[in-house]
Amino acid sequence: EVIQRQEQSIANLLEAMVEQGRHLNHQTRKIKLLEEKLAANTSAQETFEKMAQISKSALPTPTPYLTSGNSSTTMMSDFPSDCSELFDRGERANGIYAIKPNGSEPFMAFCDMSRGHGATVIQQRRDGSINFDEPWEKYENGFGDLQCKTLF
């Protein structure tokens, strides 16, 4: 009887160990996912820090894309349609650039060049300080701070 109880106790312990092993495997998978997210966030944080350094300088204007015509008026030409076009032209630094998508008026946009292509940043939450409950007109015209990269 004593041996039978010990065998049952051992069987219960083995079952508990198997369950703990499954639980540890599950936790290990969660940790790996979190590590991957942390690595991605660290890369994003480095980009944010670089953007903060860039934003300390004066807000750029479309001047690099302005050319003088034969007359005294200045004509706008050769605006890229988006940040990927800037990247294709050889631009590699994250920053604020003048773009002119699909025949619109030129405007300043933040370009993320850090992933091997140019990405036009349309929306980026930073610290929760921007209220997104805004009327459609604000979204049409844009709001937020271009220097802080929290714009829409």
TrEMBL record:
It comes from the Eukaryota. It is found in: Secreted. The keyword Disulfide bond applies. Residues 74-152 form the Fibrinogen C-terminal domain. Coiled coil: none annotated. Keywords: Coiled coil, Disulfide bond, Glycoprotein, Secreted, Signal. Pfam families: Fibrinogen_C (PF00147). The keyword Hydrolase does not apply. PROSITE patterns: FIBRINOGEN_C_2 (PS51406). Its main location: secreted. This is Fibrinogen C-terminal domain-containing protein.
